[in-house]
Amino acid sequence: MPAETPVVAITGPVKRLKTAWWATSLLVRLHGLKARYVTAANPNISGNIRGVILCGGNDIEPEHYGMTGDAGADYDPERDRLEMDVARRALQANIPILGICRGSQLLNIVQGGSLYQDIRPLRKVTPNRNSILPIKWVDFDESARLVDVYGRHTIKINSLHNQAIDKIAEPLTAVGWDADGFIQAFENTSALFQVGVQWHPEYLLLSSLHRRLFTAFCDVVKQTDSLLYRL
């Protein structure tokens, strides 16, 4: 019998628009893999899941990194709990993980890192205006895996975030920064594939340059023998 097609678990919200899911799942399927939408309402992580993409969305409750939140903030505690469980399982199984925006922040938090809760007053050079189109530049460390992925040391990215990584978790290495010095990308060089990016490459799916990150991720998924969850 032919080998079963690997599945990528893509996390997201229950109630908000699913634009990130549509774009990300399309990119995964274009690389010959299956995609499964995993949410707090549909937490199915059984089966042939060999990669995880943690997508963007609401701010993560600050209690998870030792701070106090805003009482009026739009948090999603059920999603936080579900995605932290998925992230920890993926880390334990050493399967490929890609964190996007909120997802990169969550991946940092579950390994002991923390966040700036609001970087808007701290920005000096980069704009506070959100844009799904490229609006600022990220500079990569010359040794970064992402330099090999993109074939260059600097790329132009979009920006939809008002939070950013403060303390980087010990297993991770910051490898990309914007002009204000905020971390835009990190890697774990001891893992098969563990990358977090602060921008939204899925919204730039028409760009061959920005599709390269998904190509790199999916190529490793295809070579992975481990599963996210074993009964």
UniProtKB/TrEMBL annotation:
Q: Give the record's keywords alphabetically.
A: Hydrolase
> What GO terms fall under cellular component here?
cytosol
The record's Gene3D superfamilies line, in alphabetical order, gives: 3.40.50.880
Quick check: keyword Hydrolase in the entry? yes
Q: Name one GO molecular function term.
A: hydrolase activity, acting on carbon-nitrogen (but not peptide) bonds, in linear amides
- Output the Pfam families linked to this UniProt entry: Peptidase_C26
CDD domains documented for this protein:
GATase1_2
Record's keyword annotation contains Hydrolase: yes
How is this protein named in the record? Gamma-glutamyl-gamma-aminobutyrate hydrolase
